[in-house]
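W.,

You were right to be curious about this one. When I first looked at the sequence I had no strong expectations either way, so I just let the prediction run and decided to look at it fresh. Below is the sequence, 92 residues in total, followed by the output.
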Amino acid sequence: MGSTARPPGRALATFAIGFLLLDAVLFAYSGFALGRMMNVVWGGVCLVFAALVVVLWRRYRRAMLDLERARHDLRAEAESIRDLLHGKHLHN
């Protein structure tokens, strides 16, 4: 069998969320401490992106679970067809 690439895992999503949240806090802190409102805005942007990563990660996981269920159903259907053909002595 050929090698298959593993999909991005939970660690990647966790790292991205943590990185964006850290950026959000540091931007906001520097914005308030130095009186630069643009840094506060960038902190808000990082916060929105962190929330977006969470939403997209959940959507990705739900899609992967649906795909796994469909794969299982297809496997069961193929097995039932194989059993039916075997019962009729059609061994193709």
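Here's what jumped out at me. The first helix runs from residue 10 to 34. And, maybe more interesting for your project: The chain has a mean pLDDT of 89.

Coffee later to discuss?

I.
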